[in-house]
Amino acid sequence: MEVDRTPSDRADVCIVGAGPAGALVAHRLAAAGYDVVVLEAGPRFDRERRIGRMEQSLRPAHAPQSVWDVGGQRDAYTSSGADHYPLNRTRVKGVGGTTLAWQGMVVRLHERDFDGRNGGDPWPIDYADLQPYYAQAERAMGVAGADDNPFGPPREEPFPMAPFPPSHSDAIFAEACESLGIATHSAPNARNSEEYDGRGACVGFGTCKPVCPTRAKYDAPMHVERAEASGARVIDRAPVQRLEHDADRIQAAVYATPDGTEHRQAARQFVLAAGGVEIPRLLLLSKSDHYPEGLANSSGLVGRYFTEHLGARVGGTVDRPTRQHHVEFITTESHQFYDSDDHPPIKLELLNYAGRPPAATALEADHWGDDLLATLRETYGNTLEVAGLVQQEARPDNRITLDPARTDDHGNPVPEVHWSISDRDRRTVERATEIQRSILEELDADIEWVVGPDSTGPAAHHMGTTRMGDNPATSVVDSQCRTHDLDNAWIASSSVFVSAGAMNPTLTIAALALRIGDRLEETLSQT
């Protein structure tokens, strides 16, 4: 079927990106009766192919990125910092964005993340500003959880669904944590523990990352479909090349279609929701006489403060079955080491997956039959691993720029990632691994691997490249997420984060997107 990718004659709002932020804003505004057009760089994935993609993800012949068609000249990038940044490792370009492949963890930032007590600059908003939107986001996405976290921020209502029960390995960890005085609690998940919002409960395929074949795990196409049912128009395979503008307003988004044609979508308001790398890239590609250093970049901060979460992991084996591969997602964690005066935030995660998959061991084995079976019994089913996220220090020299020496499939400079890990970051990761090691040692585990501090890497959470603030000289967007320089340009993304915290960012992205939706409704009704 031929798809119409020509621009709409009339649009109140043009949204760039159909990930969770773009989908939620589109649904909110279309349901309110506004004309909404969403431009998405990647394709619309066929739902009937989910089972096939799941099977593909399990076969070692396929690279993980290939499951959602990541790679090639379209997704080219350069990493030139002191530490290599694997940009394509987990991102997805397409309707739904990275929620198609994400783990599904949804946690709120703490109050101290906003006021600067957890390190870094304070945000121009506080937890109370987002608290009602956090609740809306949990209802919209469908979150299973329990109010059993003694270290969490205040809540105004219960989670939409009951939590997933602790796993077998959670119970093993509980023994050690109780002995060490480490409090554990349930981990909120954006997946159904029961039937919710027309979707069935999780049935345990165990392939959550990168494919949930049943939609028990939330993904953004759910709100894309609702936006379209309310009248929104979503154009896939329409990468935006640049934003045409004058000194005060964006006039149109210029996008390309698969046949090579460029089109111009005009609108009253524009929302950039393409993530923490592609948003600053688009703004830098849109430089002009009005903005010679890049659109909305009078501060010079577009692309700067590229911030991540750092991983810390310790794993090994114990002399008993752990059943770590029976649940693919995290059901228990600890925020006990999050709000500390001694170190930046650390979030501990008790994993439900650890060790090498048996297929990988079998493929590399030089023996077969009963000998291979004996090896698999010795090396599989008795592993444990404690993981965690660590806040990275927000520094202006970590940044996204353009690499004119390398271009994408439309001839535009690709993003160049300048990224490095500071000494403070390494000390925080080291502290996290000390705690993790103590848990495994309490279980008399043979510790076989440690990730961090020298081997730590990013969690694929792109934050900080269009940071929020009250001062136009030191930020890109204001407290409403509208750019200081252009009065009809809004940014819905973790790129507006001032500090990273150590919480998975998607719930905060969703809360900010819903808040932007309210502000846009007010703005559109007055113009």
UniProtKB/TrEMBL annotation:
Superkingdom of source: Archaea
Keyword Oxidoreductase: yes
Requisite cofactors: FAD
Ranges of residues in domain Glucose-methanol-choline oxidoreductase N-terminal: 93-309
A GO molecular-function annotation: oxidoreductase activity, acting on CH-OH group of donors
Boundaries of every FAD dependent oxidoreductase domain copy: 12-45
Position of the signal peptide: none
UniProt xrefs under Pfam families: DAO (PF01266), GMC_oxred_C (PF05199), GMC_oxred_N (PF00732)
Keywords, ordered alphabetically: FAD, Flavoprotein, Oxidoreductase
Annotated Glucose-methanol-choline oxidoreductase C-terminal domain residues: 395-513
Family: Belongs to the GMC oxidoreductase family.
Protein name listed in UniProt: Choline dehydrogenase or related flavoprotein
